[in-house]
Amino acid sequence: MEHFSLSDWLTAAAYTLLAAVGGLLGHAMREHDKGNKLNWLRAMTEAVSSGFVGFLVMLLCLAMGLDPLWTGPIVGLFGWLGANVTIRMLERIVYEKLGVKLRANTDKRVAAAKAQEEDRP
Q1: 90, burial (CB in 10 Å: exposed 0-12, middle 13-18, buried 19+)
Q2: For residue 39, is it left (φ>0), alpha (ψ between -120 and 50) or beta?
Q3: What pLDDT does residue 35 have?
Q4: 73 within some domain
Q5: For residue 1, is it within any domain?
Q6: Nearest-angstrom CA–CA distance, 14 and 28
Q7: Cα gap 83→98, rounded to integer Å
Q8: Per the structure, how many domains does the chain have?
Q9: CA dihedral (63, 69, 73, 76) positive or negative
Q10: What's the confidence (pLDDT) of residue 104?
Q11: DSSP per residue over 24-56, as a string?
């Protein structure tokens, strides 16, 4: 990040704002669809947290060398999905990149559960 110019920081701020607006709109639409009144404190929290994960997604897109014309929609979409969904997806990407195996025994547990179901009368 020490190589970021002022222009790069302004671009990052724009992507962060895009994700924050997406997070705010996504939250508002989900609440409206449920018939709930919008809680503005919660909505602002959703916007800020979506902006945060949007910044992380922007960095990931930058690391992958994606074109800005792809980065914008990706950041906006992850903002719209919200921080909870996005951070779960990012966790898997980061863990995989670091070689960290979460639930390394998942296959064994699934096989054991299926075997146990088959043994039931």
Answers
A1: middle
A2: beta
A3: 95
A4: yes
A5: no
A6: 21
A7: 22
A8: 1
A9: positive
A10: 63
A11: HHHHHHHHHHHTPPP-HHHHHHHHHHHHHHHHH
